[in-house]
Amino acid sequence: MNRKKVQWTAAIALLLFCGAAYLYNGVLYKEARNIEKEEAAHRLAASQLLDAYKRDLSASDQSYLNKTIEVSGKVTQVSDSLLTLDSGITCTFGKMLSENIVGAKVTLKGRCIGFDELMEEVKLDQCTLIQ
């Protein structure tokens, strides 16, 4: 009888271990998104994105929030790893940027993280220059 209890305890412990491993690998632990390799869900001009957010915040969030988007526009400001397109789209990069691209027309890809109502600007992170 004692041996049977040990076998049952070992079987239950094994099941618990397997279940925990499955949860960790299959559900809880996920690789970080690689925005640079993801296909853009939307391609639009910076002015279009900004106008959409100013018109209807909730509809724009449904369309763009947490999605990879490709945006084109004129670089109006560069500061360290931040770039501003058309004075309304703030883009965060993982590296320092050269200030000699101010005034250039560029296309970039990044993840939309929402609209800052106070500053009236759309924010993108994990950005990469495409062109």
TrEMBL record:
It comes from the Bacteria. Pfam families: tRNA_anti-like (PF12869). This is tRNA_anti-like.
